[in-house]
Amino acid sequence: MPIHVAITRKVLPGKEDEFKEALRRFLGESFLHGGVEGAGMITAMPGTEGREIGILRTFADEAERDAFYNSELFRNWEAYASTITEEPVYRQLNGLEAWFRSPQPPPRWKMAIATLCGVYPTSLFLAFVLTPSIQPFPLMLRLLIIAASMVGLLTWVVMPQVIKVMKPWLRSSD
Questions:
Q1: Which residues of the chain have pLDDT under 70?
Q2: Helix, strand or coil for residue 11?
Q3: Among 20, 96, 112, 156, which residue's beta carbon has the most beta carbons within 10 A?
Q4: Which residues, in sequence order, are bridge partners of residue 41?
């Protein structure tokens, strides 16, 4: 399953254009590393004072991610970038977060169908397994337990499997 990493860098004042140009070159060069499946830059709207730059990277798997971040190409980039940006923030994206933030997300109607394919069986499972044991609890507490269980199951168990199974269809142009 692909690994998505979000990086946020705050560029030092006056260095924004230099950093963006260098980042464009580096993003292009990074595709020479076999396990990089996607990379993109997110910038502030033109004419605003925003100095934060977002970078979203997709790797084939954890081994490719680790190989890239341990490569000479990345070490050289990091040495340069650290001279004109503040300390970067790295976050690995998981579950639904990773899916909705992928570089080329599927159309919304496909995301809705895939989500329904995860939510419906999960809600049936919770209705039959969890609901009887929490029936004596107050309504608000029951709803909280069901919602928390639903979110946890969808994020870490169900949706990664749904996405894996539906991946060819989600990426197709149908």
A1: 1, 44-48, 94-105, 174
A2: strand
A3: 96
A4: 55
Phi, psi of 170 (to 5 degrees): -65, -35
Cα distances (Å, whole numbers) of residue 54 to 6, 7, 37, 43, 79:
7, 6, 17, 6, 18
- Asked if 5 and 93 count as a contact pair (C-beta separation under 8 A), the reply is yes
Contact 51, 15 (CB under 8 A): no
* Local structure of 94: helix, strand or coil: coil
Q: Across the chain, where does the E strand assignment appear?
A: 3-10, 36-42, 52-59, 89-93
- Tally: H helices and E strands in the chain: 8, 4
Distance CA 46, CA 101 (A): 22
Q: Chain-centre distance of CA 110, in angstroms?
A: 18
User: Is the dihedral angle over the CA atoms 167, 170, 172, 174 positive or is it negative?
Assistant: positive
Quick one: CA torsion of 10, 34, 96, 40, rounded to 10 degrees? 40
**pTM for the full model?**
0.57
